[in-house]
Amino acid sequence: MIILRSVLFNIVFYANLILQMVVMTPFYFIVPRKTSWFVPKNWARSNNWLFEKMVGTTFEIEGLENLPEGGYIFAPKHQSFWDVYALLPWLSDPFYILKRELTWIPLFGWYVRKQRMVPVNRAARGKAMAAVMERTRLEMATGRQLIIYPEGTRRPPGAPPEYKYGIARLYRDLGVPVVPVVMHPGLFWPRRKFLRFPGHFRVRILPAIAPGDDPDHFHQTLMTTMEAASDALLVETIRANPHLPLPPTAAQRYRELTGDTSRG
């Protein structure tokens, strides 16, 4: 049943993407930029609904009161494609720093450019990177939320942390709060796999880290805070979903944290 539900969900998920991009494109490009956020946010809401109805996976968000007013860096754990889009409805005007090649994709690239995402040439140095930072400052000054994954790429649940220093540089240079976010969607939507698992999980938004700290101290604080909260949430999620098959990293970390060898 899980295999069948997963296959059907994946088909409908991508059909939903294509359908909404085609049907909503005229509206998206006619209305003002901020109004056009309705389209990707509606797509995100519909995907969350499909995930619940077709797979049986639900989630709740804790700590919305921790989101500051104005501009800030939104720094979530990154485990799955789910966390790329699912939280967009709760952010007023987010943006990404992304590979410039993504802006070359027909239609998708047009969507990205309208929302003033900041493209970056990863091989660039010097003036090019300075221009990226200046663009980022300008967007942040308008009260937007920069989404940055502190570990840079998707990591399986329970994997040892690999926090990049880039977020500390952004924290120093932008002078805005950083909001850490922990969650374990990778237990239900594993990276590089087509299976989707039913259950329930929490997204936990932690208190913002105020600007002005030493970047090295900030980086250590961010990592310590997020990993402690992530470990606690991992234990909660596994215990709340006893049916869930665990990836090796999650099973090992759960045993380390609890001494319970019955899972995995």
What does this structure look like?
The protein is of the alpha/beta class and 264 residues long. Helix content is 47%, strand content 13%. The mean pLDDT is 92. It has one domain (57-258). The strands form 2 sheets. Strands 1-8-7-2-6-3 form a 6-stranded mixed sheet. Strands 4-5 form a two-stranded parallel sheet. It is globular and about 55 Å long. It is an enzyme of class 2 (transferase). This is 1-acyl-sn-glycerol-3-phosphate acyltransferase. Pathway: Lipid metabolism. InterPro entries: Plipid/glycerol_acylTrfase.
Number of domains: 1
Tertiary shape: globular
* Series of secondary-structure elements, N-terminal to C-terminal: HHHEEHEEHEHEHEEHH
As a percent range, the share of strand residues is: 5-15%
Question: How many β-strand runs?
Answer: 8
Strand order of the largest sheet: 1-8-7-2-6-3
Helix content class: 40-55%
Calculate Rg over CA atoms: 19 Å
Round the mean pLDDT to the nearest integer and report it.
92
Helix run count: 9
Structural class determined from secondary elements: alpha/beta
Distance between the termini: 21 Å
Oligomer: single chain
| Main sheet overview | 6 strands, mixed
Q: Any low-confidence stretches, pLDDT <50, length ≥5?
A: none
